């Protein structure tokens, strides 16, 4: 087994999924926060998670850890069964935050591993491996977080089976603002409360908004993006899980946000903004709402992460 490098470090980014109207189909990567991961190539044919720091109670057994499961999926596709990996993880993205904590670990692991073995796999294959980590975390192998984590920017998951992912353009000067209330909303629980049937009227509205948002990204039309960031199916149900959601959203729009909604299954809420100055005003609006509540929170202002998982 001869490879150019036996050790690599990566930054695996947080991501926002659904992006209002695009439930399970749209996502984008943030520039920060990000997990820091180091992988070492071994000849043991196994995955060893030697250290996880960050203060979270996460399992180090490979079969119980999203990064480990994603790597095991990748290794199963290799001809050389002696290839293995040792991992250390600095978790900076809080589990259960709604900004792709599990996706960052899964995507970071497979992208780093792919670099170590000479880039044997395509981005689409890496997404499929990382999806197995998502299946462990939430019960479903969805790609709307891991796709932008691997590919960077905005992505559209046209199909999960067979997997078909389209990378979308990012308009210049587009920023995301995220507030993370420090409460837990489990993805599996947030899925349980969703309706299994929707009206044709709502479906048409949602399809139109997805089309409008994608067109707005291609044309860098901020007005069209703003008009399209509307979710009439999932947000009305899931928003009850997030303290002061309606007030928060209205204050952000008044402060100049293009629009936004629940990040993933929550509890984080995101807003897209045209430029850093407006993004900072929106962050202040978020802080003003939550400073009145008995809920701790964190905020992030970030440009869209064009690179996805970044090799250090």
Protein described:
The protein is globular and about 55 Å long. It has two domains: 7-169 and 307-311, 2-Layer Sandwich (Ribosomal Protein S5, domain 2); 174-303, GHMP kinase, C-terminal domain (Alpha-Beta Plaits, 2-Layer Sandwich), CATH 3.30.70.890. 36% of the residues lie in helices and 26% in strands. It has helices at residues 66-76, 101-116, 123-138, 146-151, 187-192, 200-219, 222-228, 235-238, 245-254, 276-290, and strands spanning 7-17, 26-42, 47-53, 84-90, 154-160, 163-168, 174-181, 259-262, 269-274, 297-303, 310-311. Helix 1 (66-76) packs across helix 3 (123-138), helix 6 packs antiparallel against helix 7 (222-228) and helix 9 (245-254) runs antiparallel to helix 10. The strands form two sheets. Strands 1, 2, 3, 4, 5, 6 and 11 form a seven-stranded mixed beta sheet that branches. A four-stranded antiparallel beta sheet has the order 8-9-7-10, sandwiched between helices. The chain is an alpha+beta fold.
């Amino acid at each position: 087994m001869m490879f150019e490098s036996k050790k690599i470090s990566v930054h695996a980014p947080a991501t926002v999924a659904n992006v209002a109207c695009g439930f399970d189909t749209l996502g984008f990567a943030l520039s920060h926060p990000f997990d820091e991961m180091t992988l070492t190539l071994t000849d043991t044919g196994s995955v060893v998670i030697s250290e996880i720091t960050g203060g979270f109670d996460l399992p180090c057994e490979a079969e119980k850890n999203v990064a480990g499961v994603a790597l095991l999926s990748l290794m199963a596709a290799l001809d050389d069964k002696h290839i293995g990996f040792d991992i250390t993880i600095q978790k900076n993205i809080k589990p259960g935050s709604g900004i792709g904590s599990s996706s960052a670990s899964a995507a970071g692991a497979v992208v780093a591993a792919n670099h170590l073995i000479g880039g044997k796999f395509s981005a689409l294959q890496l997404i499929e491996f990382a999806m197995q980590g998502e299946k462990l975390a939430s019960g479903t192998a969805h790609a709307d977080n891991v796709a932008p984590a691997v590919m960077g920017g905005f992505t559209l998951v046209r199909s999960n089976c067979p997997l078909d992912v389209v990378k979308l353009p990012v308009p210049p000067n587009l920023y995301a603002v995220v507030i993370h209330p420090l409460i837990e909303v489990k993805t599996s629980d947030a899925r349980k409360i969703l309706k299994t049937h929707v009206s044709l009227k709502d479906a048409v509205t949602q399809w139109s908004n997805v089309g409008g948002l994608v067109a707005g990204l291609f044309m860098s039309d901020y007005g069209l993006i703003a008009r399209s960031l509307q979710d009439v199916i999932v947000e009305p149900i899931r928003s009850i899980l997030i303290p002061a959601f309606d007030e928060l959203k209205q204050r952000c729009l008044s402060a100049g946000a293009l629009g936004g909604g629940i990040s993933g299954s929550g509890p984080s809420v995101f807003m897209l903004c045209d430029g850093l100055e407006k993004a900072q005003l929106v962050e202040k609006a978020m802080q003003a709402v939550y400073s009145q509540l008995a809920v701790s929170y964190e905020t992030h202002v970030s440009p869209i992460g064009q690179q996805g998982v970044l090799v250090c």
